[in-house]
Specification:
single chain, alpha/beta, Leucine-rich repeat, LRR (right-handed beta-alpha superhelix), 9-stranded mixed beta sheet, 8% strand, binds 2-acetamido-2-deoxy-beta-D-glucopyranose, signal, leucine-rich repeat, Cys-rich_flank_reg_C
């Protein structure tokens, strides 16, 4: 026991000297871990060993990270930025971290994430964004997210979540969503449906407790009966985003812009929504009207033609009748004359 303690203390005291460890950090050579936690750091140390695999920067006061902040440690697999003061992340901040598997950003002050922010992290498996101030997540955060299995976004200010984002993470195993400002209107139906499939397939999640509208406040999204979502534009949500019919998109967009209106109003909007049928009906009515008009015109023309034909026939018959009565008497030459005049 004493020997182990001695070994440990000698490792702790000798290593910083041995491998050029940053001044306020502890470096553990065998595991290539660098611990710079609780040092009151305002920025990341500049002289990190290039072979670093794990970097602990938690419990500091880092406000800002420059573009490609970790380019000196390209082998990094775990980066812990828990409990810092980051309020935004520069695009390209994680550039070059091809091997990063775990990124912990919990307990910062992030309120916004750039689309494709994690684009340069193809190996990412665990992303912790919990306990921030995020009110919106873009539809795409990273291009290849095939390896992401853990996503924690609990304790933020999210009202809704884009289904496209969830669909970009097919290997998701654990998803943490609780303690957000979930607004359980039509927009959240896609999340509900996605979660039902996710849980059915064995995925682990916590609860999505509605904060608004008032009718569903405090209720778990997964426990709201499907019937109550019937007024929502259902069909487009059952399909993959690529299969959504073109006509369905414009109907969904205007309601998105209403996300800051009161819950009650939104709930009403949810119910009083144009159904797809009237458009078809209007189309059908137009077709009927046009057909009717065309038929009417044709009928009128036929009638006119018939009247004209009958009148003409009657007049001709009358004329012929007169001529025939006369022709009964005259000679052959006059008959020839008649046929000549009728030809003229
Ligand atoms: C966060 O870090 C500060 C030091 O920057 C520390 O005083 C505080 O206890 C930490 N908070 C938690 C919850 O660990
Ligand atoms: C989050 O935002 C709210 C208001 O938008 C603010 O009161 C709160 O201090 C913020 N929290 C953090 C951790 O920045
Ligand atoms: C996912 O991880 C595997 C194994 O580490 C790796 O081979 C693959 O390239 C990763 N996926 C992407 C999109 O990088
Ligand atoms: C991030 O760090 C916090 C605090 O240490 C921890 O509770 C959490 O599990 C970590 N998240 C991940 C994904 O490792």
């Amino acid at each position: 026991m004493e020997g182990e303690l001695f070994l440990l203390s000698s490792v702790i005291f000798l290593l910083p000297v041995a491998c050029g460890c940053p001044e306020r950090c502890h470096c553990h050579s065998p595991s290539n871990a660098v611990d710079c936690s609780r040092q009151g750091l305002a920025e990341i140390p500049s002289d990190l060993p290039p072979q670093t695999l794990t970097l602990h920067l938690q419990d500091n006061q880092i406000h800002q990270l420059p573009t490609a902040a970790f380019k000196s440690v390209p082998q990094l697999t775990t980066l812990n930025l828990y409990n810092n003061s980051l309020s935004n992340l520069t695009p390209g901040v994680f550039h070059g971290l091809q091997h990063l598997r775990v990124l912990n950003l919990t307990q910062n002050s992030l309120h916004f994430l750039e689309s494709r922010l994690f684009h340069s992290l193809p190996q990412l498996r665990e992303l912790d964004l919990s306990s921030n101030n995020i009110s919106h997540l873009p539809a795409s955060l990273g291009e290849p997210w095939e390896n992401l299995t853990v996503l924690a976004i609990q304790q933020n200010r999210l009202r809704q979540l884009d289904r496209a984002l969830l669909e970009s993470m097919p290997r998701m195993k654990r998803l943490f969503l609780k303690d957000n400002l979930w607004k359980c209107n039509c927009h959240l139906l896609s999340l509900k449906l996605w979660l039902e499939t996710f849980v059915y397939k064995g995925g682990i999640t916590d609860s999505v407790i509605c904060v608004s509208p008032d009718t569903w406040k405090g209720k778990d999204l997964l426990e709201i009966p499907h019937e109550l979502y019937h007024p929502c534009p259902f069909p487009s949500l059952h399909l993959q985003s690529s299969q959504v019919p073109q006509g369905a998109a414009p109907r969904a967009v205007p309601r998105l812009s209403n996300s800051h209106s009161t819950g009650e109003r939104d709930h009403r909007e949810c119910e009083v929504k144009p159904k797809p049928r009237p458009a078809n009906l209007r189309h059908a009515v137009a077709t009927t009207v046009i057909t009717g008009v065309v038929c009417g015109v044709v009928c009128l023309m036929m009638l006119a033609a018939a009247i004209y034909g009958c009148t003409y026939a009657a007049i001709t018959a009358q004329y012929h009748g007169g001529r025939l009565a006369q022709a009964n008497k005259p000679t052959k030459t006059e008959g020839k004359e008649l046929s000549d005049s009728s030809l003229a």
